[in-house]
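Quick one: Asparagine--tRNA ligase from Candidatus Enterococcus testudinis, structure tokens please.
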Amino acid sequence: MKSIQILDAKHHVGETVQIGAWIANKRSSGKIAFLQLRDGTAYFQGIVVKSEVGEDVFQLAKNLSQETAVLITGEIREDSRSKFGYEIGISGIEVVGESHDYPITPKEHGTDFLMDHRHLWLRSSKQHAIMQVRSEIIRATYEFFNQNGFIKIDPPILTGSAPEGTTDLFETNYFDQKAYLSQSGQLYMEAAAMAFGKVFSFGPTFRAEKSKTRRHLIEFWMIEPEMAFMHQEESLEVQEQYVAFLVQSVLDNCDYALDVLGRDREVLQKYTKLPFPRISYDDAVELLQKNGFDDIQWGDDFGSPHETFIANSFDQPVFILNYPKAIKPFYMKPHPTREDVVICADMIAPEGYGEIIGGSERAIDHEYVLEQIKAHGLDENEYSWYLDLRKYGSVPHTGFGLGLERTVTWLSGIEHVRESIPFPRLLNRIYP
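--- reply ---
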């Protein structure tokens, strides 16, 4: 007998097949039992009719408990009443693994309870859909960069210095010296770009910020491209093309997940229209001040309410260009006509999801970069290899970093970033 996955049911209508699944829920009505089945690819309904299977199988179906693992035999049928469109008429059931007193029931549960049971919460239909969106974004990322001539390079996770020049680092002992969990692979990607031209990395990063906002994780994944012989405007074009590609890929390949999440496809489709709008930091501050944000002054970094208002003013992802030099890292290229700003841009997602990309053109003058390293109180010796990049064939180059989890949160339309990663690491939470 042919074994199939639920997602492939549409290809087997009228066939008798076997499916390995778990019981997500069940109900019975007289002489019919309805089993909600899941197998990791999708959910659909199995129907057990007493007169067709006999007393033993029918009673077994009625007594199956939530999350019991089973092998189901039956005929695939079309089901116009469900969004999935198919069901299975069950003729046989074999229990593979019993489940008793499953803690996550169809009733409401508090966030702390669900987070404590994250290893089980992942089985729910909403969490399943979010992970499908995440997986598609990862797949599409590799497709986009491979199609556009990038080479994947893996920067180290253990580093001896801080790319962002902050103290929010996880420190560890590296034999007889200090080391840190990486907060960004960017500096190493600059070295890679000088060797390969166009590169990207995709890996875990860590920030020891004691933040509890809905946008922050302690451990998260970053996509960090770096491009030699490229200026900022060209980089912005790559960024908007990449994001539009991700959105379209989710629309094309996550239909079932978007249904489960209740995500409005017309809203997402707007985010594929290029180019994305651009606004300077100067004009963004003025826009905010004219609309009642008296707390913001030139030189301040934007908070969540500020970013949300700016993005909502355009109803699309928007680039904010050229932030003050004082609030940005040491490696950004200074503006050619102003000393107070650098050539950089953040992409702000609409609908209140905030910054999803940060990028800049990189400073390439050896003496300027050395001066900035000293001005930021960093150890020149720790960055000697980075300074070498400015000594041996330095060229204009630019890059950016996209936060995977923030992008998943935005495209899924969920409220909190903690649901965008399988096992979130949050302030005071490292279990499970």
